[in-house]
């Protein structure tokens, strides 16, 4: 028998428990009882006491449910507010981009905290993101305090292939090239690297010119010799002002005197066996020309994009054009082009090498003019990059604009590559949107699998089709699709086969015209 003790209860009158009050089923039972003061304990019948326990339990359950619903509503309010902030590079709100992480809400105290994880620590609009995020969330009526933490995604390449250990934690690899000696390529590479470092990125420089390394002259690290890790048999880079450095000039050998194949091997070893660690950007100072070394670098290393450096003279442009065509064939995108104007340029040269000419001929929309200043040359000769020696100067401002362009374009390229080819399970079709193209089309998975051109599907000698039409079931679905550089995707099928599908080949396949209806959820 349960007892309900009411203090100083003289008379106790009860309303019928069968009559439910207007407050609803889950109103507290005490509101239903009209108690008169008396000192004697009052007893309730067993059925009414059981109802009291059940009501209190239901009250607790409803309160917990209300709290959960309230939290969900609060989260929805915060995310809706944050979705007003649009990333200028992607054209999408920061919630859809997946930037909002670790959202914590204490509605009772009016406190909201979350983390914005950007694609790079050098994001040029990170301060704007932080300010806007604070403002839009603080406008919510129940919010009293907002805490925003800024961070960046871990360094990782988009490339899906088997990368050497040293390159597996590098997000973006930028080639700075001119294919012509003496136009300022090394100066641009070094100052760009230190500009990116000044923007908050983790940066490394690789001097790929074995015959005439420039890096030892342009920087002044305390340790001017590369060290070896005898256990891992890896190279430990030297460092100057927070930027990691590797050059054949730091190997204690001076300038190389060796044949092309040997040089390619040295370049490959220096680049791929170095302990770069986590880098947001690795800037490669490319050697002049379009020979074995350049091809080796472009094919072995997953280049994100390239910066082309030239002077406006026609003679310089002749060699630069060769380099641009090489990068185009290897599916390397261009971030920008720099022209170094001088005072002794013929009218013909200026007309041939104008900004409009560059855009029309090469499709490079981002152009920067870098003035040739005595201080720029003196800084390079003295071992101190100009952007570090005079961070507020005219040259530093130009490189700051170039750095912003590099960061924005690399982010766009990574986004386009990572979403170029996807599988939509609801319609059982592969969606293709080739990077740098507005066209989107659908392919049947079986069509893609049957069009494999590898040695497993087609005889390399005779061209005979080994994979037969009936060998591929109509309902086949890819297990995984991952980007492979800037030119193809790697598709893993249920039978374990890994197919390399270049974008060019995907564009020639038979497309789905009648798009199937989305499959029901759970189908």
Overall shape: it is globular
SSE class: alpha/beta
Question: Helical content, roughly?
Answer: 25-40%
The rounded distance between the terminal residues' Cα atoms is: 54 Å
Report the radius of gyration as a whole number of Å: 33 Å
Give the integer mean of the pLDDT values.
Answer: 79
Strand content: 15-25%
Q: Number of helix segments?
A: 14
Strand order of the largest sheet: 14-15-11-16-10-17-18-19
Largest sheet features = 8 strands, mixed
Beta-strand segment tally:
25
- Report the uncertain regions: 1-44, 47-55, 61-66, 341-353
Cofactor: [4Fe-4S] cluster
Keywords: ATP-binding, Chloroplast, Iron, Iron-sulfur, Metal-binding, Nucleotide-binding, Plastid, Transit peptide
Protein name: Fe-S cluster assembly factor HCF101, chloroplastic
Subcellular location: Plastid, Chloroplast stroma
